[in-house]
Design brief:
This protein is mainly alpha-helical. It is built from nine helices and two strands. It has a two-stranded antiparallel sheet.
Length: about 220
């Protein structure tokens, strides 16, 4: 009989202890969208020696070909390159993952502010949707760049896992973003490239929206 393998959850949120009926009541108060997002968090049994490869594959977007250097060029201002070089591989990956999470949050906020009770999209709605798409594209490309750093040998298994944990990465934020996106597109029939990564369990394939991040992404480090 084989031994049970430990389960690695890609979500890096701290686990809470079971507090009985209080936890049940709190769960009952969650919004339906949040419950659906929670169900999409990944937690699958994998050997410990393959955790890094699992994380990198989850971050990789097969519809993109982002390199680590491209992410650094977009994110780090020229006058901050020396400070950036002084950071460890883990610290650099943490900075990129946190910036990607910020893009996710801003994209979701932009989408959730779009009214879905109009007969036709206004110019303001179209503008907000395009901004949300830009932010979403940047978030996915930044994580794709972290996967590229792993593939290029710039960061090893332990460093990648440490970066995910320190950045407090949360797959439910991406699920919420995608739910908000689909709610808007269902009403206004906007075109968009379905999510191409594997960060939560849904069958999504690319439709050619475009690769890489928006070249106008500001330097943020």
């Amino acid at each position: 009989m084989t031994e049970d393998r430990p389960t690695y959850s890609l979500d890096a949120q701290a686990e809470t202890s079971d507090r009985g009926d209080g936890d049940a009541a709190e769960r009952d108060e969650r919004a339906d969208g949040e419950e659906a997002a929670d169900e999409e968090a990944m937690g699958v049994p994998i050997p410990e020696e393959h955790v890094g490869a699992f994380v990198a594959e989850a971050f990789e977007d097969p519809e993109r070909s982002t390199t680590w250097s491209e992410v650094v060029d977009a994110m780090v201002a020229p006058d901050a390159r020396e400070d950036w070089a002084d950071l460890s591989a883990v610290e650099q990956a943490v900075e990129v993952l946190r910036r990607a999470a910020e893009y996710d949050r801003r994209a979701t906020d932009e989408l959730e502010r779009i009214p879905t009770n109009r007969a036709e999209p206004t110019p303001e709605i179209r503008s907000s949707f395009e901004e949300a798409r830009r932010l979403r594209r940047n978030a996915d490309a930044f994580r794709d760049g972290v996967a590229a750093a792993y593939a290029e040998g710039r960061i090893d298994d332990e460093e990648l896992v440490a970066a995910v944990e320190r950045s407090e990465f949360d797959t439910t934020a991406i699920a919420r973003r995608e739910d908000a996106l689909e709610s808007v597109t269902a009403v206004y029939d906007f075109d968009f490239r379905p999510y191409g990564g594997t960060l939560f369990d849904e069958d999504r394939s690319g439709d050619g929206e475009g690769e890489g991040f928006d070249p106008s992404v500001p330097e943020t480090f």
